[in-house]
User: Fold this.
Amino acid sequence: MERIQKIIANSGYCSRRKAEELIEQGKVKLNNKIAKLGDKANPEDKITINDSPLKKSNIKSYFILNKPKGILVTKHDPKNRRTIYNLKSISKNIPTLNHVGRLDAMSEGLLILTNDGNLIQKLTHPKHAITKTYQVRTEPILKKQDITNLKSGILIDDRKFYATISNIKNNTFHVSIQEGRNRIIRRVLEKLNYKIYQLKRISIANIKLENLKSGEIKEISEEKIKQLIL
Assistant:
């Protein structure tokens, strides 16, 4: 037997965290009874979400997307704004895949998509400290003292933020971090009085965006993506 949230995540319906939210909201039923966190189920048990049967799949898929600037990373937006799931490359081919982590609306670049719930859980867990690198363009040019301060740590939200700066070319540079606080790069650079004109994720550990066009997706192997958590 497995916990219901794990079964839902493994089906590709959503992440385990989102599954827990759905259970807490009373939207999940187990054998026609409202499920509770901690409930377990067997393969033959009936699980429904919003009264629709959960479709179970053992086929795992892994893609990367070059997220365009100006759209949201979410499956459901109450204001009906454009999301990554409105992109033709996703809506026509892999609408059931879930995003791993987020990029804010005005950010762009590399996003991993998969229906492997266990992998999503591992990739988003802080203990793995996966390095993510972004290409950033600011005004004014980044100061040497701020580069040093970012490496030694800048306090924000009562916790230090660490970043490594590389590939500096005038006002464009790379920022590498190992955490995932919401809009953390923007917030830190704004605190340092920089205006951001570009924030583009170009790699997640060994997975690189390379020459993938904006709005396009590319399938990657299970072996390659699982190297992220070794």
